[in-house]
Amino acid sequence: MRQASLSSREVPSSRKPWRTFPVNGVAMCGDCVEKEYPNRGNTCLENGSFLLNFTGCAVCSKRDFMLITNKSLKEEDGEEIVTYDPDLCKNCHHVVARHEYTFSIMDEFQEYTMLCLLCGKAEDTISVLPDDPRQMALLF
Question: What InterPro entries does the entry give (predicted)?
Answer without folding.
Answer: Churchill_sf, Transcrpt_activator_Churchill
